[in-house]
Amino acid sequence: MKVVKKINNNVAVCQDANGNELVAFGIGIGFPKMPYELNDLSKISMTFYQLNAHYYQLLSEIPQAIFDISAEIVKLAQIKLSKNLNPNMVFSLADHLQFAITRMKKFKDMKLIFSYDIQQLYPRETELGQSAIELVQKKTIHHLTRFRNHHNCHALCQCPRRNRSK
Known about the structure:
The chain is of the alpha+beta class. It is built from 6 helices and 5 strands. 49% of the residues lie in helices and 14% in strands. The chain has a 5-stranded antiparallel β-sheet, with no helix packed on it. It starts with a strand and ends with a helix.
């Protein structure tokens, strides 16, 4: 795989063996002088093909840790919900998590009027959303409130249904 452009130290634009552009995540892959040939593909943790400009913008705006958490949540959702999800959901969820973290910093007591309805209509997804909140709290310094912040659960309730692959 040829690494052609650094996005940050852990994310780079690459070309696969067929010449297709992709974004690769991996510790330190953006550090060497560009371009270079990456022979050890075990350094790559995630790859994304056919990203639009909005996703590239998110890569520069959202911390790497949030993308890593988002990828972990998507993997967990695929297992718990027994569904294949759109691989680019990692970007949408990372954007959503970053927004939730920002909102919680500014509006700690914000309540969402449909929280109870979401809990009742989507119990598995709500449970998954709670796991996501716990993961964010465990892996970052951000503390999202359990059931006061159902917006995260709502994202997980809606995204699997909207972004189903086949």
